[in-house]
Amino acid sequence: MQTREVQVAAGQVAELAPGRYVCVAVIDNGEGMSPDILDRVFEPFFTTKGVGKGTGLGLSQVYGFARQSGRRGRRSSRRRDRGRKSVCICRPCRATTPQSKARRSRPTPSRIEGGRLLLVEDDPGVAAVALEILEELGLDVDLAENGQDALRALDQAAFDMMLTDVVMPGGMSGVDLARVAARSWPEMRIALVSGYVGDDVDEVLADTPWPLLRKPYSSDQLRGLLEQLTAAPAA
User: Fold this and answer.
1) Among 218, 160, 164, which residue's Cα sits nearest to residue 188?
2) Looking at the whole model, is its pTM more than 0.70?
3) For residue 218, is it within any domain?
4) What is the pLDDT of residues 57-80, one digit of tens each?
5) Which end of the chain lies in a sparser environment, N or C, as judged by fewer CB atoms within 10 Å?
């Protein structure tokens, strides 16, 4: 890992204005990436793993979080026979003084009044990020990895809200789970999360009454979704 200050010229990095930046780079000594793979590493769910070996989301999550917080990501790779690839996150340099710190606005207090939430997410990396955000919001969170585990958890305890991924293993999608849960626990508020895009997915989601949050999401977007849930009657 490297941290350095750099001067970016106009057009040097796509979507990045010229100026001075602090860049954090993570570099490995692997075999490198071919140009066709390099062009797709930030795509949601793009992966070079085989079927059933996992999905992408790693670099697309990093890219999404970076963009939402005013940063930009870039990637590079040497020839595959020479190895080494890197991912760099750049943020603008800003002068910080005691006066500028004092002028910073305080975060808007959350209107979420606690409660118990069931998070249904099969990707460990995404689940870890979501758990941290949800617990910081003061929620009591239980985690289920698929629809069947979620139904068992719902049978054993009362939940105020459920946040479920749409595409999951085990034969039950998040939409299927939401429909069963809405019938059996009508007072519970439900929201969907998805990183997939496309006509097939959009067609399924268009028929649902529950709010949808797209991956990758920021902590502010997740908080806004939960505030929307707490303010509205259960679907």
Assistant:
1) 160
2) no
3) yes
4) 566 556 665 555 555 555 444 444
5) N
Structural tokens at position 74:
């870039």
Rg (alpha carbons) of the chain, rounded to whole number: 21
CA distance 148 to 172: 7
Contacts of 62 (CB under 8 A, 6+ apart): 73, 87, 89
Cα torsion at 164, 166, 167, 171 (round to 10°)?
A: 80
Please, are residues 156 and 131 in contact by the beta-carbon 8 Å criterion?
Answer: no
Instruction: Give bridge partners of residue 144 from the DSSP assignment.
Output: 120
What distance in Å separates the CA atoms of residue 232 and residue 235, rounded to the nearest whole number? 8
Greatest extent of the chain over all pairs of C-alpha atoms, in Å: 58
The reply to whether 81 and 154 lie within a common domain is no
Among candidate residues 182, 190, 19, the one with its CA nearest the CA of residue 120:
190
